[in-house]
Amino acid sequence: MALLDKIKKLFGKKTPKRNKDTGSALERYYKSFLHAIDGIIYATKYEHNIIIIICATIFAISCGLIFNVSTYEWLFIIFICAAIAACEMLNSAIEATVDLVTTEIHPLAKIAKDTASSAFVKSPNNGGIATTVSVMTVLPSHARIDCFNSSPFIV
User: Fold this and answer.
1) How far apart are CA 33 and CA 142, in angstroms?
2) In sequence order, what are the residues at sequence separation of 6 or more whose Cβ sits closer than 8 angstroms to the Cβ of residue 63?
3) For residue 59, is it left (φ>0), alpha (ψ between -120 and 50) or beta?
4) How confident is the model at residue 117 (pLDDT cuts 50, 70, 90)?
5) What is the pLDDT of residue 2?
6) Rounded to an integer, what distance in angstroms lies between the CA atom of residue 67 and that of residue 144?
7) Terminal CA-to-CA distance of the chain, rounded, Å?
8) How many CA atoms lie within 13 A of 40 on its CB side?
9) pLDDT single digits (tens) 54-77
10) Contact (Cβ atoms closer than 8 angstroms) between residue 128 and residue 121
11) Maximum separation of any 2 CA atoms in the chain, in Å
12) What is the DSSP letter of 101?
């Protein structure tokens, strides 16, 4: 049985219809971009962790400008900052979806929210880890410090 047949059987004769924007492909792409901007604005206004991430991103970019980092180091810094923000926004989206489904305190809602937030905490792009890795990447080449091979305890 094909997937479409299973969906029709599950939902009756009609397949679920998504509320999609109308217009040409370019108009739909533009509207999609505006929806994404709305999401960023919402997250900036109402999610306190995004403000922390924005401040850390500004700090990382400032350090990159001060230390005149290489192209590869810029790519690394930009990728890490974007990945952190994306993880936090996915976490917020999952939590909002759970809140949409139920406002009651339910064990499964708690599991969904806790698991979504742990995806951000456990990801290798966590803020503290990203800052440490960025410092260990940028400083050795610019301050002549070798974070991996030198130790103040080795004589």
Assistant:
1) 39
2) 134, 135, 138
3) alpha
4) confident
5) 67
6) 12
7) 72
8) 11
9) 888 898 888 888 888 888 888 888
10) no
11) 78
12) H
Q: How far is 137 from 147, CA to CA, in rounded Å?
A: 9
How far, in Å, CA of 77 to CA of 84, rounded?
11
Residue (of 133, 26, 142) closest to 81 by Cα position = 133
Question: DSSP character for 14?
Answer: S
Q: How many CB atoms lie within 10 A of CB 43?
A: 19
For 65, the token pair is 């400008």
Highest mean pLDDT among 1-10, 34-43, 100-109, 124-133: 34-43
33-37 long-range contacts, Cβ below 8 Å, gap at least 24? Answer: none
**Can you read off the two tokens belonging to residue 46?**
């109402």
Q: Is the pLDDT of residue 155 over 60?
A: no
Q: How many residues does the chain have?
A: 155
> What's this model's pTM, rounded to 2 decimal places?
0.66
Short-list 82, 71, 56, CA closest to 135: 56
